Amino acid sequence: MIRKELIKIDSDLSDRDACLSYLIDKADELHLLNDKKIYRQAVEARERTMPTSLGFLVAIPHGKSDAVIEPFVGILRTKKEFVWDHNSRHLVKLVLMIGVPQTDTGNHHLLFLSEVSKKIVDDAFKEQLFTVKSEQEMYELMNEVNKKVRERQ
């Protein structure tokens, strides 16, 4: 689910809409979506149900949609913290966006959410999320989560 091409660290983006647009555009460029507008609608519908900022400076927006061709996780770390949702006031610096097809019987997004939630409470892992210096290092770090997801399928 995690791809090097969908990782960006130290971005100047500073709001939820810009982060979502960036990650959705990248997923579309990689041909992981057949309709980025429909996928965005799924992500925004989920945000209206409950904001996906978890605290810990992390947000995990996600959408299950027919617009997703193949499950993916996009990772975007910003230079500065910003308010993800003005109702929750959680600050965010790391966005992990999940896309899964509507027909996903493997529940990839739930497995990923479960595994990343376990890791985020680990202070050493969390520290690494915010200090890795390159997209390659982020990929290697997050690949630990990816491996756990594959083991549970």
Summed up:
With 153 residues, the chain is an alpha/beta fold. Helix content is 44%, strand content 27%.
Provide the fold topology.
Layout: E1 2-11, H1 16-29, H2 36-49, E2 53-55, E3 58-59, E4 62-65, E5 72-83, E6 91-101, H3 108-120, H4 123-131, H5 135-152
Parallel strand pairs: 1-5, 3-6, 4-6
Antiparallel strand pairs: 2-3, 5-6
Helix pairs in contact: 3-5
Word description of this protein:
The longest helix is centred in the C-terminal third of the chain and has 18 residues, at 135-152. The chain has 153 residues and is α/β, with parallel strands linked by helices. The protein is built from five helices and six strands. Helix 3 packs across helix 5. It is globular, with a radius of gyration of 14 Å. Strands 1, 2, 3, 4, 5 and 6 form a six-stranded mixed β-sheet that branches. It has helices at residues 16-29, 36-49, 108-120, 123-131, 135-152; strands at residues 2-11, 53-55, 58-59, 62-65, 72-83, 91-101. Strand 5 (72-83) and strand 6 form a beta hairpin.
Keywords:
153 residues; 6-stranded mixed beta sheet; 27% strand; single chain; alpha/beta
Mean pLDDT: 88
User: Helix content range of the residues, please?
Assistant: 40-55%
- Major sheet: 6 strands, mixed
Unreliable spans are none
Distinct helical segment count: 5
Strand content: 25-35%
What separation lies between the terminal Cα atoms? 12 Å
Number of strands: 6
Written as H for each helix and E for each strand, in order along the chain, the element string is EHHEEEEEHHH
Radius of gyration over all CA atoms, rounded: 14 Å
Overall geometry comes to: globular
* Structural class assignment: alpha/beta
